[in-house]
Design a protein that fits this description.
The complex is a heterodimer of chains A (about 500) and B (about 100). Chain A is α+β, with helices and mostly antiparallel strands and about 500 residues long. Chain A has helices at about 10-15, 65-80, 185-205, 245-260, 310-315, 320-335, 335-345, 350-355, 360-380, 390-400, 410-420, 425-430, 440-455, 455-460, 470-480, 485-495, and strands at about 15-25, 65, 80-85, 90-95, 105, 115-120, 125-140, 140-145, 160, 170-175, 215-225, 235-240, 270-275, 280-285, 295. In chain A, about 40% of the residues are buried. Chain B is mostly helical and about 100 residues long. Chain B has a domain at about 5-45: Histone, subunit A (Orthogonal Bundle). The longest helix of chain B has 24 residues, at about 20-45. The radius of gyration of chain B is 22 Å and the shape is flat. The chains are: A alpha+beta (about 500), B mainly alpha (about 100). Chains A and B meet through strand 2, helix 2, strand 8, strand 9 and strand 15 of A and strand 1, helix 3 and strand 3 of B. Strand 9 (about 160) of chain A pairs antiparallel with strand 3 of chain B.
């Protein structure tokens, strides 16, 4: 691999202004493919979800999936787009075996949605990303390249094709050139993809799991000398498949372009591959011109003409936008920007909401999800919500704490029990014998023993240093293995020593 | 002016990953030119008032419900494949070393 020259990010930004274009492909979560009734379920045996239509056999005719069109319109509306009154599919012709038809059915000059925008936030600042278009198309098959050293297409002896994925509905969302982001360009790119992912999930049209390839991003990037109006030549980094990678790919390309340009070189318009492990890109193929795809209207599919009243119905039923929802929740929960960001980063919004819905106060729900449960998820390297505890169970634990049956220490043991598969909170409490001891006669003995064992501390308290009582409370808590009601213990200590609390 | 030039045929051949000899290029360019010339006569007949037609039927919104229908079995799907391996279609080398 040839060594790529880079200049520092700061130096690159001192001389050049980055312009980005982001293309995001989202696999819709429909039950069937875009143009045939084959299942889209994951994990099926190779070539077990294919039919004459998605295999491109002669005479097979495609029919559009109504649910996919509805999803496309809803995505368009959520992105503040115009919805086409009438639009067609087009054949994108190319010779590559990932589509058995030798073309991909896509949309060309008549996308179903166009001219929208999505607002994203970077460091509390709202940045508007303009949307050029969102169009319908289909996914390609999956190739494995056999032979050769790297498992990559270069040098492979032959390739094997599984067409289960060929024909799964895709929505491609294309931004207008994103200008004016300057040094924040990589962060804006990441924030945009993150916001889009939240939006897609809120709409319920896809799980948009990037690690599963359900959402993939191409990062187009060019630099122009600061002050110049005309855009530079762009590179297109394909299939950047995590939020972190989107940011890294943009950053890397800014540094690479700047190095080439500052030495008087020219950028080649080409596709580039992103390498997760190193955070670098390498040259792919030289980009074919659009006309090489010889797009023409798909004669086998009639035009799609979304009725205006239907579009308005869909618009009226859109969910609250993720960014506005987050802002509302932040206010309701009374959190600082920083705390809200932590909740967001931990993926805790939904579990907290569900815990609140199950009857817990928001602050308590947040405390357990962001405290004990986030800590455990972090330690075991699992997702917060992948842990075997339900929001209803967390709400039950909150309730037990609120009524005084558990204190925080015991509650943590209950959580541990639930995560260990010992049953629900009440079962763990019963099985482990976890309950706050607030019975005065039982506590009285422990308090008397603590006072007897710490005469010096007891004297301090008697002389009016109420704060010193903490040591005695601690001793009682230790003696009762944390099961005592600490507030009641303090009352008893002060009472015994004849001090007003 | 011909409907398609020899250079355009060479370009298409490259996109299609087809290696054509010089005499094949001449031969196909001539043949394709005849075909394109024949098809082009349609536009001589169609006046300014006839828009390009992509669909002969005045239909829109022909759609199906999102309901799974049976697929082929892998054996049926692969029955016509020139080569298969690991229940997948086997295709020749796609790109060379470069």
């Amino acid at each position: 691999m040839s060594v790529v020259n880079l200049v520092s990010f700061e130096d690159a930004l001192a001389s050049y202004d980055p312009v980005m274009g982001l293309e995001v492909h989202v696999e819709l979560g429909t039950a069937t493919k875009m143009f045939c009734g084959c299942s889209t379920a994951l994990g099926a045996e190779p070539n077990s979800q294919v039919c004459p239509t998605c295999l491109g056999m002669p005479g097979a005719l495609p029919v559009v999936n109504a649910a996919a069109v509805e999803s496309a319109v809803r995505i368009g509306l959520a992105l503040n787009c115009e919805i086409a009154e009438w639009c067609r599919f087009a054949r994108k012709n190319y010779f590559y075996p990932d589509m058995p038809k030798n073309f991909q059915t896509s949309q060309y000059d008549e996308p179903i949605a166009f001219d929208g925008h999505l607002d994203v936030e970077v460091d509390g600042e709202v940045f508007r990303v303009d949307i050029e278009r969102a169009h319908m198309e289909e996914d390609t098959g999956k190739s494995s390249h056999i032979g050769g050293a790297t498992g990559r297409i270069h040098g492979a002896e032959y390739s094997l094709l599984d067409y289960n994925r060929a024909g799964i509905p895709l929505i491609e969302i294309v931004t207008k050139p994103i200008t004016g982001a300057g040094a924040k360009a990589p962060e804006v790119a990441k924030a945009y993809v993150a916001e889009l992912r939240e939006l897609i999930r809120a709409l319920g049209v896809s799980e948009a799991r990037m690690e599963m390839g359900q959402m993939r991003c191409d990062v187009n990037l060019s630099l122009r000398p600061i002050g110049q109006e005309k855009f530079g030549t762009r590179s297109e980094t394909k299939n950047v498949n995590s939020l972190r990678s989107v940011e890294r790919a943009a950053r890397f390309e800014i540094q690479r372009h700047a190095a080439v340009l500052s030495e008087g070189g020219t950028i080649v318009q080409e596709t580039r591959h992103f390498h997760e492990d190193e955070g670098t890109t390498t040259s792919g193929r030289v980009k074919e011109e659009a006309e090489d795809y010889r797009y023409f209207p798909e004669p086998d599919l009639v035009p799609v003409a979304p009725a205006r009243d239907w579009v308005e119905e869909l618009r009226a039923s859109l969910p609250e936008l993720p960014r506005l929802r987050r802002r509302r929740l932040q206010q309701e929960w009374g959190l600082s920007d920083k705390d809200m960001q932590s909740v967001l980063n931990a993926g805790a919004i939904e579990p907290i909401l569900e815990t609140v819905a199950a009857g817990a106060p928001a602050d308590q729900a947040r405390k357990w999800w962001m405290g004990e449960l986030a800590r455990r998820a972090n330690e075991s390297g699992t997702d917060l919500t992948a842990q075997p505890i339900t929001p209803a169970q967390v709400a039950r634990i909150c309730a037990l704490v609120a009524e005084g049956s558990l204190n925080d220490k015991l509650a943590r043991q209950v959580i541990e029990g639930v995560l260990n598969g010992e049953g629900g909170p009440d079962e763990v409490v019963a099985a482990r014998g976890l309950a706050v001891v607030s019975d005065d006669s039982a506590l009285g003995t422990a308090v008397d023993e603590a006072i007897a064992a710490n005469p010096g501390v007891a004297d301090k308290v008697r002389s009016g240093k109420v704060a010193a009582a903490g040591a005695l409370v601690g001793a009682v808590m230790k003696a009762t293995r944390g099961q005592a009601d600490a507030a009641r213990v303090k009352e008893l200590v002060l009472e015994r020593l004849g001090v007003e609390g | 002016m011909p409907g398609i030039t020899r250079e355009e045929v060479a370009h298409l051949a490259r996109l299609s990953r087809l290696e054509l000899k010089d005499e094949e290029l001449d031969h196909f360019a001539e043949q394709l030119d005849v075909i394109i010339g024949a098809v082009a006569r349609v536009s001589e007949v169609a006046g300014q008032d006839v828009p390009p037609t992509s669909h002969p039927l005045p239909l829109t919104n022909v759609m199906r419900a999102d309901e799974v229908r049976p697929s082929l079995t892998p054996a049926e799907a692969l029955a016509g494949a020139p080569a298969s391996e690991e229940q997948r279609f086997r295709v020749p080398q796609i790109l060379g070393e470069d």
